[in-house]
Specification:
Elements lengths: L2 E9 L3 H11 L4 E5 L3 E6 L2 E7 L10 E6 L3 H12 L3 E9 L2 E8 L5 E5 L9 E7 L7 H11 L3 E8 L11 E8 L2 E7 L12 E7 L2 H12 L3 E2 L4 E3 L5 E6 L2 H5 L5 H8 L7 H6 L1
């Protein structure tokens, strides 16, 4: 099955403004298309969606974006631009895991982890999932769960806690994995945190046909929660949007766009045939 996958960042009303800011910060970046509700854009060649969803949800540190900078000049530049009018969670300096690293929250609340290391991939910005509190031992379970759903999946790296750590044997501190060609990082934390996964950041899967929609809808939502308009939360609380690849084209059709929107607002799982007939 062929899919396109990319992250979506939830904003109140600042989606276009934030997308323009990010495109000014990152190289090889551009606005793809924009409406009052959604702005699609690319950063370092990786697609993102910015959504004006209102004040219902906010982003937090449960999902951040890990940027493999590759050069000293680049990490310094990004640190300066992204931390301006934002905040610094972890200062920019050398750590045991990196020669140069920082964690910053930008002025819109989005979390960025900056690492001087390179990555052997065209995807230089990687979503990082933080499994904390009662979920801190769930990374391996998540890897197994996702690999059973995404046929083109692989685990790229597993790093367990060192010997002597006060965690169950085999607990993963870090993992990197690929789902249908898209790379994710996963981290666990033994610290208590006052946040968890929310729809503030979700992952969009564009599906070519109804079979794909049905597959991801039922498999990812199992033991989780199904919402409206193609949204669901999986068993870990991570949000996904399962949408038809043709949706944007249908919504922008001057003759039927309004009918398409009215139709899918009544749906939980998308029905492509109903949308095409709208």
């Amino acid at each position: 099955m062929k899919t396109k996958m990319y992250p979506c960042i939830w904003f109140d009303t600042q989606a276009r403004e934030a997308a323009e800011f990010y495109c000014s910060v990152f190289t090889d970046s551009k606005i793809l298309d924009s409406s009052p509700i959604v702005t699609n854009f690319e950063l370092n060649g990786t697609k993102f969606m910015a959504l004006n969803g209102g004040p219902m949800y906010q982003v937090n540190s449960s999902i951040s974006f890990y940027v493999y900078c590759g050069q000293d000049e680049e990490i310094n530049r990004l640190f300066g631009l992204l931390s301006e009018d934002g905040s610094v969670l972890i200062p920019l300096k050398k750590y045991a895991w990196s020669e140069k690293y920082a964690w910053v929250i930008d002025k819109y609340g989005t979390n960025w982890q900056l690492d001087i290391d390179k990555i052997n991939s065209n995807q230089k910005i990687v979503p990082a999932l933080l499994f904390a509190n009662e979920k801190m031992n769930f990374i391996r379970d998540a890897l197994n769960q996702y690999s059973s759903i995404f046929t083109n999946s692989s685990t790229l790296l597993e790093a367990p806690y060192p010997a002597g750590a006060t965690v169950p044997d085999g607990t993963l501190l870090f993992a990197q994995f690929k789902l249908n060609g898209f790379i994710f990082n996963a981290m666990s934390s033994t610290m208590k945190h006052d946040f968890d996964f929310t729809p503030g950041i979700s992952f969009v899967i564009e599906c070519e046909d109804q079979e794909e929609i049905d597959h991801y809808w039922y498999k990812l939502g199992l033991e989780g929660k199904y919402e409206m308009c193609g949204w669901l939360a999986d068993k870990y609380g991570i949000s996904w949007q399962i949408i038809p690849a043709v949706l944007s084209e249908l919504m922008n059709d001057p003759e039927k766009g309004e009918r398409v929107i009215k139709s899918f607002l009544q749906m939980q799982k998308f029905d492509i045939e109903v949308l095409l007939k709208a």
